[in-house]
Amino acid sequence: MKVVSFHTGLHLTLNSVPYRIDRILAEGDCYLERLSDGALLRKSKPELVGLLSSGELVLKSSGTSIKKESTPTESQASRARADLLRLSGVERTELLRKYEYIKAAIRYRGGNPTSTGLNTAIMEIVKSIDDAAPPHPKTLYGWWRTWLDSGQDLMSLAPKGNKSSPRSKFSKEVMSELHTLVERLWFTREKLPIKAVYDAFCHRMNELNGLRLTPLKFPSRAQFYRIVGQIDKYDAMAAREGKRVADKHFRATGAGAVTHHILERVEVDHTPLDVIVINERTGLADGRPTLTLLLCRHSRMVLGFSIGFEPPSELSVMRALRHAILSKAYVKEQYPDILHTWLAYGIPLTLICDNGLEFHSHQLRRVCAELNIELQFCPKQQPHYKGAVERFLGTLNRAVCHRIPGTTFSNIAHRGDYNSADMARITLSDLKSLIHEWIIDIYHQEVHRTTHRTPTAMWTDGLGMVEPLLPESLMQLNLILTKETTRRLSHQGVQVHHLFYNSAELGLLRIRSNARYDVSVRYDPEDMGAVWVYDELQGDYIHVPCTNPDYTEGLTLRQHDQILKDTKQRGLDEQDEEELLESKARFQQKIEDLSRNKLIRERKKAARDAMPVPPSWSSNPALEIPKEPDTTAESLFEPLNFKVVTRGQGDD
């Protein structure tokens, strides 16, 4: 996907009306020129980000113009452009290799492409990624120019047409000989130079070809170097120089990260919060929620977070990422007592995470690739690689959760005979309110002991140097933050998790293909009301509703799976709409019954399965559960008197 920042000349549509940014004032306000008559409209950047987050604003990447008379049709409104990273592992590695050289060129030569003075940048990347076949400065200039002319679209660096990788051009026999020689000669402590390994490879291939009527085609020197360069760097160093040297090298590479701009390095992590929350309806303890949070390393500004009973997963990461990217304008309306503005928004350049399974998932890798986010993993057993977010989560637990009735403290020794479940008094929505207030009004306004400035001041200064990148539209972001799968297209449409999705446009797609065939489908696990189906002929996605909208309205995938499980247990052979609706009602009743269960584990499961009331920044509407009057609000918040204090050693 192309990402966009605010600049003079940028084309956009506001409530389907085409505009262009005519000028940007020093204080950051933008004058928008309406293309139909030249009328000017003044908007601040925070206002524009808020409009983008609500879906009213669509940005157009550089080089794209908007016709004055253009009006989106219903067909166009149900589609979204597909900027996909549909590449093999080798092609993806090559694309990211090119991007590393471009970033180095920008650091050394600025934002304007040039073919001179690039040798220093090239040598830096050669050393950092151990590239055996570095590009010529003119080649790097070509990549740089292509990337910039495309609106900084990472996909512009992908192989064009049906070009194959070096590996695919050669037979299995040739590749087997290559890997055998590399393992025997290259992966040795004698550190044989790669030139000598290639010479030995050529000699071996000449021997084999001398015995054949039809000679085998084998890699050239440059192709050989590139194939060897794609071998895992850690494995190669461990084999040639020893495991301890490799561990030390990669540990040193990740320690003490230095940043120069906001959003340059963003750290993400999960933690169970040290407090037990109660159910809003029953008053019984639900358990400890989990927090997933993104922190800007440069400014120490919290970019976004997600709180819920969902265990650490790719879903919780995508929730937090959505919150980080979009505007926080909802805070004023939802939490009127908060005094300050949460300024953070934008797409991270690099996302630093640990080696949890959720971070290594194919779906999260695809999401980061489509948002042009570079995903980096901490070296194993090196938590200091993302120490800023680790320390922050500890600070948040001590400053908020340890002061709330029902806290579990940080360890059992501190808890003593304190019964956390019996003392729990606060609901999940109350906890979210307190965390918002502490982050925005306290943490962001305190001088940080490392930067010696407040996160708000650091972020504000950073906005003067770097314009945060944004998705082109809310619809495009929603499409990216989904799960992707493959399904067979038939006259019934497509089937996803036992639900059918169909539309007139999908029918036309099947008619054009004139056959049953597999299509790429994306769906949001938090809203099963519709899916996106990829149209290979048009190169975009079609928005396809469920054929049973009454059932899927506000339905999450987890709830649907539980309903189907309940239906199967009753021994039903077939499922129709009425039976599923009855199962949904029974499932809701089961949640209410479990919420009164005395076992915390069962109540926590019920809270996780309950119909969600999402935060205002979520794109997923949900069924609203009426609340009973809260007569204990004043007594709950009396002991929570937050005061700005200087942190002790170890806080962050």
UniProtKB/TrEMBL annotation:
InterPro entries in UniProt: Integrase_cat-core, RNaseH-like_sf, RNaseH_sf, Transposase-like_Mu_C, Transposase_Mu_C
Any one of the GO BP annotations: DNA integration
Ranges that cross the membrane: none
PROSITE patterns (UniProt xref): INTEGRASE
One function term, GO molecular function aspect: nucleic acid binding
Spans annotated as Disordered: 603-636
Domain Integrase catalytic residues, every copy: 255-463
Protein name: Transposase
Record lineage: Bacteria, Pseudomonadati, Pseudomonadota, Gammaproteobacteria, Oceanospirillales
